[in-house]
Amino acid sequence: MEFIQTLLAQVNTIVSASSIWLNTTASDTYTNLLNNETFSKFLLTSFDMYVNAQIFVTRVYQHMYSHYPIVRETSDIIVYYSRCLTAYIENYKVEPFQQHWVSTHILIKNSHLFKGNRFIHIENYQIMSSDISPDCSYNEKTETGFLYFYNILQSLITSLMHVVDAIVVMKDGNRYIVRSILNKHDQFLHKPSKHVFLSVAYTHPSMEKSIAIEFPEQMYEVGNVVFTPMFVKRCLEYQSCSYEFDDTYILDIIDHDANMLTMNSKQYGVLTESGWDIVNIEKQSKELEDTNRAEPKEPDAVENKETSE
Fold first, then answer.
1. 219 shares a domain with 112
2. CB environment 19-35: b (16+ within 10 A), e (fewer)
3. Is 300 inside any structural domain?
4. Domain match, 161 and 215 both
């Protein structure tokens, strides 16, 4: 036993001495190489060649991407499916590769009788057709396609219980159109909003850190409804950070004018041409009820019955 301990101590001493020698030798070699003028020139020349080669490859790629559709399409597909692979590994969602689609999202409050998430998200994507009727302009086709699903949601929600929110999101090339059943849809203005949020942070009582809520620049469209509960849930599902979601979340927002605001699940925003409006859901519902109660009812129609003599 004593022999084994002595042997292990000797081996440990040899390993330590070898490690010190290797570190010293490597350090001395590195110092000598740096002090060597020829080697220093070689390093500078190699770095310069690397930078020039990188610039050349980047310029060639940009030229081919701009002038050759097959290069552009192949590159976009590779980048997209790389994102899909990352999203699959990290368990988050990615929007379709196509540039023209409509998606419907319904947020339902789960019953306490069931385990799992307190809120259920049901979503569906439909790819837009590229055909345009001769008697229909492009904007008319876009509006018709959007309203098809928006009206379906409106009719469904009136007969479904426990629905918290439902939104329709359309990707129309380089812009997004977003509407919610919580906000009455008036018209499509087809104009970009000048307002941009400087920062939006999602916080929850059960989370130690906040999550930055980011959405595409193309979503800053006049009339778009943002920060409804379903909108927030969708944003969280399309990013990589883990999160908790229910109706106790808070949004800390810094808007375009550097105003610091706090919003909860009972509020949302509507983008205007130069800013945005905050809407309180409960106040809006009460005003709508008061309006409906104040409207005079039409007298019942009287049916005229023919009597036979």
1. yes
2. eeeeeeeeeeeeeeeee
3. no
4. yes
pTM of the entire structure? 0.76
Judge whether residue 308 has pLDDT over 50: no
Domain end among 52, 77, 97: 97
Judgement on whether residues 40 and 110 belong to the same structural domain of the protein: no
29 lies in the same domain as 74: no
- Verify that 117 and 139 share a domain, yes or no: yes
- The tokens for 194 are 């000048």
pLDDT in tens, 23-49: 777 676 667 666 666 767 777 788 788
Domain range for 20 is 2-64
In a domain, 306, yes or no: no
What is the chain's mean pLDDT, rounded? 84
**What CA–CA distance (Å, rounded) separates 167 from 105?**
5
Share of the chain above pLDDT 70, in %: 81
Domain count, the chain: 3
- Give the model's pLDDT for residue 127: 94
